[in-house]
Write a structure and sequence with these properties.
This protein has 261 residues and is mainly α. The protein is built from ten helices and no strands.
């Protein structure tokens, strides 16, 4: 399982062209779903209107060099290290899920398009990264779902309470978990392999096909919102909010961890 390409082995029953076409369709679903979400919710219109308003209300000009610097800071802090999360556990969980998902998706695309059959030997590192990425998603995702979610930790709701906002994380965990189970069963020659590859495809289709109704597209919106926030702080508009206090209030105590998010 850790050294074999599960998609190359699957090519014995599903032609590589079918798998490659499926991935192309998935990419179209993500792009189309994100554009639909932007148009339907008018996110882009709101963003640019807010940008113009912030520029008008700014007390100082932001130069081109400063804009580049702010963009780099946004990419490093909010993008690569999830610095917007004050809660350390939440940040670690998010980073595990994010980097695990990236490794999982990238290696999937490489193995399906470049090493689709056993005739083309797959470098061992690819299935290893695929498995490690999937395990990272499971670790970060299940940790978040059962122990970190605000409505569970701070509001006392059951971890099994499900609302529409949970569609993304649940479909992601279902897709990755079923993918790992399918790869294991296929590597061991289990007769349940066909059932689990079907479940895996269903969960994956829900994950990428539900973009307009889930939080999937937020991964594209958040960097833009973080960059805009930095620009507003730099030009003095601050979204019409007052500056931070000299000594912000600290919640929690030595006996109880803070639960404000």
């Amino acid at each position: 399982m850790f050294t074999s390409n599960p998609f190359a082995e699957l090519s014995a029953s599903i032609p590589p062209i079918v798998m490659q076409t499926y991935i192309v369709v998935v990419i179209i679903l993500v792009v189309g779903g994100t554009l639909f979400d932007i148009i339907h919710k008018k996110s882009a219109k709101y963003f640019f209107n807010n940008w113009r308003q912030a520029k008008k209300k700014g007390t100082q000009q932001v130069s081109g060099g400063e804009m580049v610097s702010l963009a780099i800071q946004t990419a490093v802090v909010e993008g690569l290290t999830s610095g917007e999360f004050c809660n350390v556990q939440r940040r670690i969980s998010h980073l595990l899920t994010m980097y695990g998902f990236l490794a999982y998706v990238v290696t999937t695309v490489i193995m399906v398009f470049w090493y689709p059959t056993p005739a083309t030997p797959t470098p061992t590192i690819l299935p290893q990264l695929w498995t490690i990425g999937a395990l990272m998603v499971c670790l970060g995702g299940y940790w978040f779902w059962f122990f970190i979610r605000v409505d569970v930790v701070a509001e006392g709701n059951s971890p099994f309470r499900i609302v529409r906002a949970d569609l993304f994380i649940l479909s992601l965990l279902a897709s990755v978990t079923l993918g790992l189970v399918w790869a294991y069963l296929q590597a061991t020659g289990n007769s349940w392999t066909t059932v689990f590859v079907g479940l895996y495809l269903i969960a994956t289709t829900v994950l990428f096909g539900s973009v307009p109704w889930s939080k999937f597209s937020h991964m594209f919106f958040k960097p833009a919102a973080a960059f805009q926030k930095r620009v507003e702080e730099a030009n003095g508009s601050r979204s019409n909010l007052p500056g931070p206090a000299d000594k912000p209030k600290i919640f929690g105590s030595a006996r109880r961890q803070p639960r404000h998010y």
